[in-house]
């Protein structure tokens, strides 16, 4: 490592005594190496990298059928597609690729335009599968602040429980006291709550 941390950092380091500047550089080098080690441990930089194999579908440049096959294999959906038909569909959209890649638009919009008016079920399936993969877990994590259940126990909550809590929170405008008073008047609801049967009582409050 060449110990270059940017011109602004170099200018700041010159304000320190040599020994102090050397110590700071040493700490920065340790931090930098730790960051590299973390990336190398958790990220695949080889040619088998999943993101590398699907990057061609970002429509930043024209992609070949070979690129498309690599993406299909990376997504592990070859068995769900007719590869011969996929080639025909690729050929149908090929003349439109150059115009699409030159547009300044989100990738989803580009694919929508590329496939618009075409009968390309296999290529559409590839695009649909690809865009169904969340790029982060932010959408999942945002459920808990919305639900108000940010606790150490949330990892043990079932999907059904979280769904029920959110439905109750979003659909009831009653205070706890108001709901308690209202629920006491609903005998069928109380009986369902006491039983082990699946709730089938539907009531508009």
UniProtKB/TrEMBL annotation:
InterPro entries to which the protein is assigned, alphabetical: HATC_C_dom
HAT C-terminal dimerisation domain: residues covered: 99-157
GO molecular function, one term: protein dimerization activity
Pfam families the UniProt entry points to: Dimer_Tnp_hAT
Record's protein name: HAT C-terminal dimerisation domain-containing protein
Source organism per UniProt: Aldrovandia affinis
